[in-house]
Amino acid sequence: MDGILIRTPPRVSFSTLSTLQCRREFMVRKSIPANLMEKRRQKPTLCCIRAQQDGSSIISPSSDSDANSMEIKEWELGRMQEELAASQGIRIRRRPLTGPPLHYVGPFEFRLQNEGNTPRNILEEIIWNKDTEVSQLKQRRPLTMLKKALEDAPPVRDFVGSLKASYGRTGMPALIAEVKKASPSRGVLREDFDPVQIALAYEKGGASCLSVLTDEKYFQGSFDNLVAICRAEVKCPLLCKEFIIDAWQIYYARTKGADAVLLIAAVLPDADIQYMTKVCKILGLAALVEVHDEREMDRVLGIDGIQLIGINNRNLETFEVDISNTKKLLEGDRGQAIRERDIIVVGESGLFTPDDIAYVQEAGVKAVLVGESIVKQTDPTKGIAGLFGKDISL
What single string gives the DSSP state of each residue in 111-144? Predict the structure, then answer.
């Protein structure tokens, strides 16, 4: 595991880059526009006036020059990362943007706040919040500490194997049942929320795996729920349902008992997905890579080593749901490539009835991830039988 520590080698080349961060820094240095480099060379050092959005100004002395240079460098890095993501069709920005110096007048530098400081949709808001949250957590629990904690983590259970076994046993899509209290679009789904009792009911009803929401601010989940379910007498492998933007989170999830993690293609560039799936392989975790449109599916199919692809029928920006999205993404060459590579496709969102399950199964789905339609039931065990139209328990 030491091989994926973040290091910056003295001579950077694509053959010697050891981590994704190194690749990014190399790409940024090679890609900084000439006009920005010229501005940096011409940057005055006497003083800085930053014009705020409301028209007020803050004057800082020339001793801030080094700090300002670092800020500009950080902006350049962030901007190049966003441009790389945008080139792959990713519209979700990783964090708010702060603009570069826009004008130089004599010895003064004028900066205006830009429109990039407001999230464009709920997913982007969640990601921005997660970026801040993870940065704070990493300071308190650095990677070296997490690696030591891995020694006490429970053994990894076979998430993919469990899905295959269930599909072979029932002839129906394997169920990943979601332990989920709330969502931004639906609010609180279950007031009397006991994660362990719900997990046990799911397992009794025939779930092959469980998905546990760990985001606290928007889904009222927690890693405490994941730990509690892991320590209970629950045999199902556990998916950590989190908004992952940093490989550190994968280590953290494993220390809490996760057997699989979610990677969202709408958020992560190809290099991130490729790197994070390798981290998962090292740790023994399964990676469920989620897509919701044709471009994302094509991107993910272009990455080696993918075992699980989740098709989200919910538009992650508008939260509208259409289960025909699953069929659309599994038609033609894409479906053929998935069958040839023995990739398990997981249908997600908008599944409430036996007809819904039959529809996505006919499209090529071998597993489904379901939360709302069963967690809201008084008896989730019976809710599973109602969803599938029959008892799928052992």
Answer: ----GGGS-SSHHHHHHHHHHHHHHHHHHHS-HH
